[in-house]
Design a protein that fits this description.
The chain is α+β, with helices and mostly antiparallel strands and 116 residues long. The chain contains three helices and six strands.
């Protein structure tokens, strides 16, 4: 199964992890960019997404554990790939500047179900 990280400046606080096998529709998990950033240094997260940094058996990998009512999935990724991905996201939207990239009117419309 393949796993791919995505970032959209329109949702600057979030990243998307797409899981899928070739020829199948991917399943997307959306979680905080900060969660992945912090997870490079120490185990973090609660609930549906946990990020666990490198450990003795796999010193160059990072584990993302995804949980829901249907079960649990564990995704291993190279620390270097996660670090490079995060570096690209912070080049697009620096930490602390996320609010400058949000379309608050659109977000409110989506939350309330109203069309602008």
């Amino acid at each position: 199964m393949s796993a791919e990280l995505h970032y959209d400046m329109a949702d600057p606080y979030a990243i998307r992890l797409s899981l899928g096998a070739p020829m199948k529709r991917p399943v997307d998990w959306v979680f905080a960019r900060e969660l992945l950033t912090e997870g490079l240094r120490r185990p973090t997260g609660s609930g549906d997404v946990l990020v666990i940094p490198r450990h003795r058996c796999h010193p160059h990998s990072l584990r993302v554990v995804l949980r829901n009512l249907a079960g649990t999935a564990s995704v291993e990724m190279a620390v270097s790939a996660a670090t490079a991905f995060l570096r690209q996201t912070f080049a697009l939207v620096p930490e602390g500047a996320e609010g400058l990239h949000m379309d608050l009117d659109r977000a409110i419309s989506e939350l309330t179900g109203r069309r602008g």
